[in-house]
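User:
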Amino acid sequence: MYDGFYNLNKKPFQLTADSDFFFNSAVHKRALAYMHYGLTQGEGFVVVTGKPGTGKTMLVKQLVASLNNENITIGIMVSSQVSADDLLKIISATFGLSYEGEDKSTLLTRIECFFIEQALEGKRVLMIVDEAQNLPKDALEELRMLSNFELSGKSLFQTFLIGQQQLSDALLLPEMEQLKQRIVATYQLKPLNAEETKNYILFRLEKAGWKNSPQFDDDVFDSICTYTQGIPRRINTLCDRVLLFGYLDELKVITLLAIEKVIADIEDEASLTTDEFHEISFKTSDISNSIDERIISLEKTVIHLQKTMANERALLRKAILLQLDMDTVYEDIL
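Assistant: Predicted structure:
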């Protein structure tokens, strides 16, 4: 919608991890350096952690794109709560090995044979586990056991664990000491600072074909950084809403006032979701509330919903009128 209004080739702030929009900030550059260093070691574990939305999945895609697949056989797994046996099945499936109805010893033997075959072809096997904080301890221990496979004194299998802070916490547990000793590199992704936030926004806009329309007042970037805490996914969400707001209000310049209005709308929506709907949920703890209190709470919620719906109708009406105007102009040109 707004991409046509601002003559953009694509949406610049989509939430999916598109490697074309990889922004090589100082923290991401350093994280990649640690990952490449880990690869040179050819063994053990590399651990990269960060808050949700800091760009971990994007980092994985960038790393894979930069690797020489002639030397490394790469498997990527997005983890969930899986047992050690299920983990072996997932690894088998990732590398195209059969696993249905097989017991653990058969799976391990087949996986080891695959590792050896790759080594004889001059390759080593790399497993990248995204969302690794979801792995239970027995699955992490199984990965450690796989790292024991060797041929002529060289490790056959290396693992990259990519996850949230809970992963680091889990690796500090006493029972994880053996795995921790096999970590060859670790890095924690930090949020972007104010200057990087500005550069990140402009970078993504330019990648989408931005030609300085809309323009951005200088003071908006600090506000965006403060509200999003420099987390790329939050920046994307806010900026996407800002451009939609700009389109609906036909803004050629994004001002601090526009940013504040969009933030206020987001906060109102969050407040409605987390507070007002919670107030009208009929839980056991609410039974003690008086009927009058419930009625007042319901009235507040209805008023808020009516106001929100009125605003949404107005925005939708404006969007339809704008689209009709654009269609008319197009027909006149033809």
